């Protein structure tokens, strides 16, 4: 009987991990597919012009999110009877940040653009608010249906009504985001408690470490794109944003690999931690070269971009470190040493900004931007391993 229960528990856990992993991969794939749809049916210049809007919205969404997923999952686990209260109060607490950025967009961009970007941010706000509920309630199938439906609507609308114009692309994409956001909100409408709409502003203090980590991780992976976009070359910005998204996606595969082992890591099993380190290193050595070959084919045959062998060599050293230090981040969390992670990631983000900026200033182009990021990644890896050495 006990063996049957253990097998059932294992099967359920595998289903949970697989469902969530598939959902995350699907969302990432759709995100990477959008620029290809736009470029194929419009132009690189249109997408390159859209990238600054995308970068602004991504950063704004990170700030509006404020680490709410990790915070809510912790609250849900501790007080499962008050899920609706925590969800509703968190939704209201972050609303002022959304309003602030919605107003800011109308000053930073033309008002006609600002209105649609505000809707875009509102959609992201609703999506991010329900992320913890999706995981806690295991609503992966429903999430996948929403993602498929919304993406299909976006593609059909863009293909049928495309005007080869930046403003129309913004309308389509913002509508796509608000459609997803409203769908997720309706999915979990039963958890929205109108009687508990008093904002809990202590959330901002408690979740601040999660917020800092998410911002640093975001900047570490996107600062080179921001710097390149600042130079104003729309074609180069379009190409590099797509390449960067593909590279970051490959980096994220490391997290999917060690996710099944996270529970054991938190139980302080050193043997499991070491086995996971070895598994990640071997997986990286296999997956990264294969992924880079696929990216090469995409760049050549779809983007018409023939990048040098040096570029892809640098790309390897940009991606591979994440397969080596990802487990160290979880290990430090287990030891309640989040500050160490913050310091190391802050150093990496700063180094990335300085180095990528210098290489771009000296006109090394996309290769220079990636080189700065790769050196920063190697520095981060070195610091995590150095910390591990001194802990021993």
From TrEMBL:
Residue spans crossing the bilayer: 45-64, 97-121, 142-161, 167-189, 201-220, 240-259, 279-304, 310-333, 340-362, 368-390
Keywords attached to this entry: Membrane, Transmembrane, Transmembrane helix
Name this protein carries in UniProt: Membrane protein involved in the export of O-antigen and teichoic acid
């Amino acid at each position: 009987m006990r063996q049957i229960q253990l097998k059932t528990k294992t099967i359920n856990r595998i289903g949970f991990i697989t469902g969530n992993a598939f959902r995350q991969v699907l969302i990432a794939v759709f995100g990477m597919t959008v620029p290809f749809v736009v470029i194929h049916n419009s132009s690189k210049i249109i997408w390159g012009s859209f990238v600054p809007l995308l970068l602004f919205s991504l950063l704004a969404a990170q700030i509006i999110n404020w680490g709410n997923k990790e915070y809510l999952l912790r609250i849900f686990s501790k007080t499962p009877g008050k899920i609706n209260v925590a969800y509703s109060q968190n939704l209201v607490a972050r609303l002022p940040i959304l309003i602030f950025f919605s107003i800011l967009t109308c000053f930073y961009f033309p008002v006609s653009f600002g209105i649609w970007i505000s809707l875009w941010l509102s959609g992201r706000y609703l999506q991010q608010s329900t992320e913890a509920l999706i995981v806690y309630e295991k609503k992966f199938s429903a999430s996948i249906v929403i993602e498929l439906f919304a993406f299909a609507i976006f593609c059909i609308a863009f293909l049928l009504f495309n005007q080869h114009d930046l403003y129309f692309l913004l309308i389509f994409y913002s509508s796509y985001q608000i459609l997803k956001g409203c769908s997720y909100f309706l999915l979990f409408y039963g958890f929205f408690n109108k009687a508990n709409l008093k904002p809990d502003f202590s959330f901002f203090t408690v979740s601040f470490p999660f917020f800092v980590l998410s911002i640093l991780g975001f900047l570490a992976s996107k600062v080179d794109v921001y710097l390149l976009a600042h130079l104003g070359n729309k074609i180069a910005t379009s190409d590099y944003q797509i390449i960067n998204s593909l590279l970051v996606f490959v980096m994220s595969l490391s997290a999917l690999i060690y996710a099944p082992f996270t529970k054991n890591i938190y139980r302080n099993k050193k043997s499991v931690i070491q086995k996971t380190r070895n598994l990640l290193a071997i997986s990286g050595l296999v997956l990264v070269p294969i992924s880079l070959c696929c990216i090469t084919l995409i760049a050549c045959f779809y983007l018409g971009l023939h990048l040098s062998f040096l570029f892809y060599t640098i790309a390897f050293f940009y991606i591979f470190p994440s397969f080596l230090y990802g487990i160290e981040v979880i290990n430090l969390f287990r030891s309640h040493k989040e500050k160490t992670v913050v310091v190391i990631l802050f150093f990496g983000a700063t180094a990335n900004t300085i180095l990528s900026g210098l290489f771009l200033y000296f006109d090394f182009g996309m290769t220079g931007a990636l080189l700065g990021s790769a050196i920063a990644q190697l520095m981060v890896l070195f610091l995590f391993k150095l910390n591990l050495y001194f802990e021993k």
